[in-house]
Amino acid sequence: MTYKLTVGLEVHAELKTKTKMFCNSANDPFNAEPNVNICPVCMAHPGTLPVINKQAVHHVLRVGTALGSTIADFTEFDRKNYFYPDIPKGYQISQYKYPLVSGGNLNGVLIERVHLEEDTASSSHEGSEGSLVDYNRAGVPLMELVTKPVIHTAEDAGAFARELQLLLRTLGVSDANMEKGEMRVEANISISNTDKLGTKVEVKNLNSFRSVERAIAYEVARMTAVLDGGPGEIVQETRGWDEGKQATFSQRKKESAHDYRYFPDPDLPKLKISEIPEFSNEALQATMPELPWEKRERLVREYGVKPENAEVFISEPLLCGLFEEAVIAIGVDRPSVSLIENYITSDLVGLMKAGGSLGGVTGHTLADLVNMIKAGDLSSRGAKDTLAILYAEGGEPKVIAEKNGFIQKNDTEALKKIVDEIISANPAVALDYKSGKVALLQFFVGQGMKASKGAGNPALLKTLFEEGLK
Predict the structure, then answer these.
(1) Among 48, 59, 115, 198, which is most exposed with the fewest C-beta within 10 angstroms?
(2) Contact between 133 and 115 (Cβ < 8 Å)
(3) Three-class DSSP category at 180
(4) How do residues 436-454 score in pLDDT, each as one tens digit?
(5) Which tens digits make up the pLDDT trace of 323-338?
(6) Pairing of strands 201-206, 237-242
(7) H or E stretch including 142?
(8) Where is the domain boundary, 223, 253, 283?
(9) Same domain as 213, residue 139
(10) Contacts with 167 (C-beta within 8 Å, 6 or more apart), sequence order
(11) Three-state DSSP class for 438?
(12) Which residue range or ranges hold the Asn/Gln amidotransferase domain (predicted)?
């Protein structure tokens, strides 16, 4: 039987602030020393009082502005009560009835709400030795975004999470590194063959986009097998994801909101957003950078950038800045832009895998390199070799190319001598070419480029070989 998949996502993102959400301990959960970024407030000592981190609130409101959401005029913080070692107070400060942000849209997915809370401590389980708890993360500002249940494929869920990560990084509110746990995705999954939603299962703490997609696909297969008469049952529960087995596993029965006994935190003031100047719509709009979908559209429209390369530029601001600097330096003509685009997304990206920076490459030197290619001074091979040295050492492309013998040779007589020598050294291949195996011409051109150390003009070499092999 065919079933319709419905998914709603809950995404947590640790926010970039100097201090934690309700105290002045450093927001540095990855400190090598455990339990050093703590204080009486985040460790819940008696008599301590929390204070709201204004920057964290501002971050969430900026996210809401970018999503086209409704910013709350009134908001408050609530206590979410449960007992676990990673919560020193016995409750988590979160938001329930009055979130900071409601509604909005991202990547075609409707947003239910975005609220602000504090993160829990990090637990590491040592088997029979017990568990260890590091409270460096306890109290770190944590944004939670909840979508409406309107996602119907695993791929769309992954695409939404990727776009959200791009948005958070573009706004500068979170690094959203999933491997570090700075962004964590939970998927609420159900399938049904009617208009009514099926029994919902939540898969928690998925730490990669691929895991999000694979966990959803696994649950669809598992639920389908059960509904088609197989063993087991579908119950409302929380499940985990086993990366090694590529399978979900049952963790606990899914709690409902009333299980947490939410109530307004009496130690924190209510907030009237409209009374805070920095939180006005005009002030928030003024902080908006060019958003990922805006930049994606502009790169394609203004420069003719390939969609897949536009994604590279959006996800790597360093590369996008270099691209636009080079285009401005050289002028916006399609052949030049295409060369700049290709050398960045193929050659430079490859060089950056080891170092992660732009090395000695700037927009102006990249523009100079492309101008040399257009003028016929550099072959493709010579340009790649020049770029590699430019990346490693810096300098000027022309000086590098001249010093290393990369300047393309257009001397017909010199190249004809190379051509004659190669044909004489490969009589059998020359005979096969003359017998009709015309694809062998590329072999001869390749040998010519090798003999000229990459400096021969490949178009001229091709012409000379065609004449020499008649």
Answers:
(1) 48
(2) no
(3) coil
(4) 888 888 888 888 888 877 7
(5) 999 999 998 888 999 9
(6) parallel
(7) strand 141-147
(8) 283
(9) yes
(10) 63, 66, 67, 106, 291, 292
(11) helix
(12) 321-469
